[in-house]
């Protein structure tokens, strides 16, 4: 598996991945994504900003994540300071044919490498309260639950916000 920056040529595979994942998310009660979001324009913007990463397994896009410094003001609901510079992972998804193979963990390790490379000690991520897989994964990777939040972008849904501070995890 290679973790690399996405290119515009990856968009068809990324959109197919998302289209395959959305029905599974909805079946699990996770309505974080729909057929309007995330979309081609969102991923194109991420690529143009050099913040969209993919897990590539022999030419197949096994996973995708936007690794940014963009965090929602609502993180303050979880006691986090959104004015602190942090690497924030958004739009994390794994191809249904590659789930359970460490793809999400590899993308989150890339977020950590980005943080280290930029001298940023804080990583943050949020997930829908119905997403049991990420709620198990994040603590395994050193993320600590900060609290539950709502997001204006997704009214009526609840999210769990996690944080990892690298200065406390340098030897792990």
TrEMBL record:
<feature type="domain" description="N-acetyltransferase">
    <location>
        <begin position="1"/>
        <end position="167"/>
    </location>
</feature>
<dbReference type="InterPro" id="IPR050832">
    <property type="entry name" value="Bact_Acetyltransf"/>
</dbReference>
<dbReference type="GO" id="GO:0016746">
    <property type="term" value="F:acyltransferase activity"/>
</dbReference>
<dbReference type="InterPro" id="IPR016181">
    <property type="entry name" value="Acyl_CoA_acyltransferase"/>
</dbReference>
<dbReference type="Pfam" id="PF00583">
    <property type="entry name" value="Acetyltransf_1"/>
</dbReference>
<protein>
    <submittedName>
        <fullName>GNAT family N-acetyltransferase</fullName>
        <ecNumber>2.3.-.-</ecNumber>
    </submittedName>
</protein>
<keyword id="KW-0808">Transferase</keyword>
<keyword id="KW-0012">Acyltransferase</keyword>
<dbReference type="InterPro" id="IPR000182">
    <property type="entry name" value="GNAT_dom"/>
</dbReference>
């Amino acid at each position: 598996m290679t973790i690399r920056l996405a290119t515009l040529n990856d968009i068809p595979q990324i959109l197919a991945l998302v289209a395959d994942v959305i029905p599974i998310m909805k079946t699990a009660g996770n309505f974080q994504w729909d057929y309007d979001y995330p979309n081609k324009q969102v991923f194109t913007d991420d690529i143009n900003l050099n913040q969209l990463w993919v897990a590539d397994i022999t030419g197949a896009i096994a996973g995708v994540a936007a690794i940014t410094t963009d965090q929602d003001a609502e993180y303050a609901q979880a006691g986090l300071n959104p004015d602190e510079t942090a690497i924030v992972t958004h739009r994390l998804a794994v191809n249904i044919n590659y789930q359970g193979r460490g793809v999400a963990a590899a993308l989150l390790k890339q977020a950590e490498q980005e943080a280290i490379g930029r001298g940023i000690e804080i990583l943050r991520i949020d997930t829908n309260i119905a997403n049991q897989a990420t709620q198990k994964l994040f603590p395994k990777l050193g993320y600590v639950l900060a609290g539950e939040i709502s997001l204006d972008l997704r009214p009526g849904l609840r999210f769990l916000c996690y944080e990892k501070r690298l200065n406390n995890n340098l030897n792990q």
